[in-house]
Amino acid sequence: MSMEKSDNSLRKNRLGVLGIVFFVVAASAPLVGMTGAVPIAILAGNGAAAPGAYLLVGLTLILFSVGFTAMTSKVTNAGAFFAYVGRGLGKNAGIGSALVSIVGYVTIQLAIYGFFGGLLQGQIEAEYGIALPWYIWAAIAWVIVTALSLLSVDIGAKVLGILMALEVLSLLVAGIAILGNHAGEMNFAASFSPENIFVGGFSGGAGIAIAFALASYIGFEATAIYGEESIEPKRAVPRATYWAIGTITVLFTIVSFAMVTGLGSADVVNQVATISVGGSNPALVLFTLVETNVGHWLVVIMEWLVVSSLFAGLLAFQNANARYVFALGRSGVLPKSLGNTNKSGAPQGGVIVTSVLAAIVIILFAVQNLDPIMNLFFWMSAITAIAIMLVEFLVSLAVIRFFMQNPGTHWFKALVAPGLSLVLLGIGEYLLMSRFNLLSGLAPSPEEGGTAWAMTTLGWTLVLLPFAALFIGYIWGLVNKNDDSKMSADILS
């Protein structure tokens, strides 16, 4: 595996639509969402209507994707979101959004390292009696992920394709089996009627459920990052985006509805509370349903697929973050040396920076004896949700401004869809921020965990971190005089 620099262009024609979809669906880690987020959305959110919240968020992101993909016909750049923001709102805003994206992707990767290490620590000890600390398992994953991300991107896509196919298949088998066994108990009104989805209002149950749903979709927006490496990017990226968000939405909606149906919509909150031991072990909800409706064999498979799902997420976000760093180096925003690729066409500087950052934080959490799941996973993943939603908001704004200045695109794609998504994403960001205490576990007391805006000092610091990154990036754009010609350029034009 050569580390020799070749040029500052990513290797073209390596990924088709399916390859991009593999990276994006893997990043969303659907099995982790179904075992971790959905039970909490039911328990602390809107009960039986949690599937409706997931469907609503999916439709909102499809609406966002209309303007987002219209922009891909104008700009194909590994910087993706920041390239779009830079083209629509100017260089300084683009650099600011780039730092926010890096914060988002670094923190979600760190979160997954914590979850991966903590999960394997318990699972390996229980199954084989091998007791190793979580950070050893995280370090093993770190080595493999770093090595794979230095290879050609299509090799990573093949690995993710296998893992994702098994993960999606297991969820579909589980969902269909549960619905088949409870066909006469399906209550669509309980799960999908607006009055039930919005029960409790944005400040109550509905807001909590939507916040968890929004956090579960993180990763779908990465399709455009692989534009330079794809076959026919002007067509591949839009198709991959719709396929990815459509797949995730359908999967989340079907499986969450199956969970509600299997437990009984009328008593689902009590059932979830009992099975998950008050929410302390949410994975037991899906696994219990699978045990009853399919068999123990699938539970065993799914327990290990959760591990592979986390690994797939690590590899997907490593690739995404490395390409952001690469694009910033190529444009002169970061040191130019970070904008080079190796002989495999991989962004080696971005990979190294991303891996070093991850290693430093893992070591710090290990030295401080902080919990890999309660601290590293929950803190970091909550930051990610805020950061990515902020960038999506900026992209919608940039799309509107760009097409107002460059007419010729259909009015719905240019103005209506991004305008509606701007409003909905703004509401979503408010919900994520107001419920940061629940997402991160940083409420001042357990009693205040469900109270909007009740956070510790650390909670406020973390929730404002993406906005601080936006401000710092904007100021850096003002003072940085390096060549930025490739920051928001269409690299394939």
For the record, the CATH class is: Mainly Alpha
> Strand portion, in percent?
under 5%
Summed up, the helix count is: 19
How many E-type strands? 2
Which structural class do the helices and strands define?
mainly alpha
Give the fraction of residues assigned to helices.
over 70%
CATH topology: Amino acid/polyamine transporter I
Instruction: Output the strand order for the largest sheet.
Output: 1-2
**First-last Cα distance:** 31 Å
Q: What's the overall geometry?
A: globular
Mean pLDDT: 86
Low-confidence stretches: 1-6
Oligomeric nature of the chains: single chain
- Order of helices and strands, N to C? EHHHHHHHHHHHHHHEHHHHH
Specify the biggest β-sheet. Answer: 2 strands, antiparallel
Question: What would you report as the Rg, rounded to the nearest angstrom?
Answer: 21 Å
Architecture per CATH nomenclature, i.e. the level-2 architecture: Up-down Bundle
Per CATH, the superfamily is Amino acid/polyamine transporter I
Question: What number of structural domains do the residues give?
Answer: 1
